[in-house]
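Narrative of accomplishments. A recurring question from our advisory board has been how the design workflow behaves on a single, concrete structure rather than in aggregate. To address it, we present the structure tokens for one chain from the evaluation set, followed by the sequence designed for it. No filtering or post-editing was applied between the two.
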């Protein structure tokens, strides 16, 4: 006959944790903080220190978002997987850098950089990057970031927006179908760069053909209605041709004997 263990399932599911004691001890120390900001129009979500963080978008009319603060030393938990439901407490630095661990000097990735994604699977500049740096997210040791930090973040964001807008423009020129879910991404880049949106109302996305006056896609080099090339060089060449023909007709219309009078 099986005899129930005192406490039953609840006792079996109890987790043995040390983080609360570690938090209490750390609270006795006056630790500095680091701050994560955003100069981009999009909220950023990242994981660091064992939890998810939300970095708000930069409000319109301001240069950067409200700061998200984290302590210089961050505590998190990990399961020891020892069969006893024991959780270990891990302490990580907020900022990346070199640390002397025992007799070795090692480079460690800080929690702030984990949140941003600087060491993510796709950290380089790319439309599919998982690094928030390219979307305007940055870390500062000051609650009011320095001008150089803001400018660097804005420069990286602009590179990303240029890349996204260029990709969207190529899709428009090629007549490629783009889903309604993806269009806001390209229009967001257009708005940031101060350019007309690639999708939206006809007033924004269409021009008139200089030859036939029909609606054409903004930036098109060929009119699908009159089948004329409408790049700047072709337009100028046709204009000169029309001027020559008009001048010739004008001379032909002058009555005989009046030329030169």
């Amino acid at each position: 006959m099986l005899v129930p263990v005192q406490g039953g399932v609840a006792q079996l599911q109890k987790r043995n944790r040390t983080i609360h004691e570690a938090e209490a001890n750390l609270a006795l120390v006056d630790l500095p903080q680091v701050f994560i900001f955003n100069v981009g129009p999009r909220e950023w979500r990242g994981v660091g220190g064992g939890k998810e963080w939300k970095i708000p978008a930069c409000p319109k009319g301001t240069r950067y978002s409200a700061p998200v603060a984290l302590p210089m030393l961050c505590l998190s938990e990990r399961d020891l997987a020892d069969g006893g439901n024991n959780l270990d407490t891990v302490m990580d630095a907020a900022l990346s850098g070199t640390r002397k661990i025992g007799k070795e000097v090692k480079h460690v990735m800080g929690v702030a950089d984990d949140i941003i994604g600087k060491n993510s699977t796709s950290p380089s500049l790319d439309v599919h990057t998982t690094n928030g740096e390219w979307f305007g997210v940055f870390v500062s040791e000051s609650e009011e970031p320095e001008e150089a930090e803001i400018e660097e973040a804005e420069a990286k964001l602009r590179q990303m927006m240029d890349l996204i807008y260029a990709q969207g423009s190529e899709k428009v020129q090629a007549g490629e179908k783009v889903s309604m879910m993806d269009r806001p991404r390209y229009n967001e880049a257009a708005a940031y760069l101060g350019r007309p949106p690639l999708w939206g109302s006809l007033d924004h996305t269409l021009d008139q053909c200089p030859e036939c006056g029909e609606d054409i896609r903004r930036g098109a080099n060929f009119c699908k209605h009159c089948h004329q090339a409408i790049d700047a060089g072709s337009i100028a060449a046709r204009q000169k041709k029309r001027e020559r023909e008009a001048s010739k007709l004008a001379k032909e219309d002058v009555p005989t004997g009046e030329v030169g009078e």
